[in-house]
């Protein structure tokens, strides 16, 4: 049966004592030149170091010294023909040689014969402890906030040197600090409007204003001011201005013109009527039988239709216009009006 072994080993120079309890035997494996990696090197010169005639006597020391030179950097070592020593971080064998036939045993120690190597595994606690050392810190990361207090970090590695299995690792590999602690800009925002001020005029067209403040919040730390006006003005008119009041009496079948100054208009007032309520008005041809308690329905409204909003108007006082509230009684129009406008 053809047996193949794969090693990734480096050279180890033999010259030290060792503790045989720190490694254990794995087995005997056949080596073929065509599958041996280039990293395999002979590290013991047969002519200078190894006495082939005294092989069994030298083997324990040979194994121990090979272990001593490989224990800090490798997980496996092997002893080959004529005392060749190799160290490897890993190995794989397709099959072991039956009954260790290709290797030589001397008690606890074994070595390969021609085209064979005997492989040992180095125990985890065999290596000399190498504590880790830290590299320089790398660059700071970007701050988590642009203002108002963020955090940033930087890291270093445990590679100077890299710790081995029994050695101690590194601490404090990450450093964190605050950054961009300056206050963030606060843009201003308008507060609510105040109530409108009192109208600038007591009658007619005036103006009134209201205001607001940029304080909800007020701009701070370089923030933007409020956009827009802080005051607002509108027109107002508490009431129409009045220029004079008049009572006009118009006898039945007569007409009268009402007039106001320029830019003013007539406004018919309550109390206006068509009818008769006393005997002292339009009393020509007075008859004792005349009624003094008659009033046409809607008389004031009909007068308003004729005159309200006009600078001048004519009221013809007759039954055709207002109806006849009391037949046989001579009637009249009592017109109460005032002139109204937007300015005094």
UniProtKB/TrEMBL annotation:
Residues 1-16 form the signal peptide. Residues 250-340 form the SUEL-type lectin domain. The keyword Cell membrane does not apply. One of its GO terms (molecular function) is carbohydrate binding. It comes from the Eukaryota. Keywords: Disulfide bond, Glycoprotein, Repeat, Secreted, Signal. CDD domains: Gal_Rha_Lectin_SUL-I-like. It is found in: Secreted. This is SUEL-type lectin domain-containing protein. It comes from Clytia hemisphaerica.
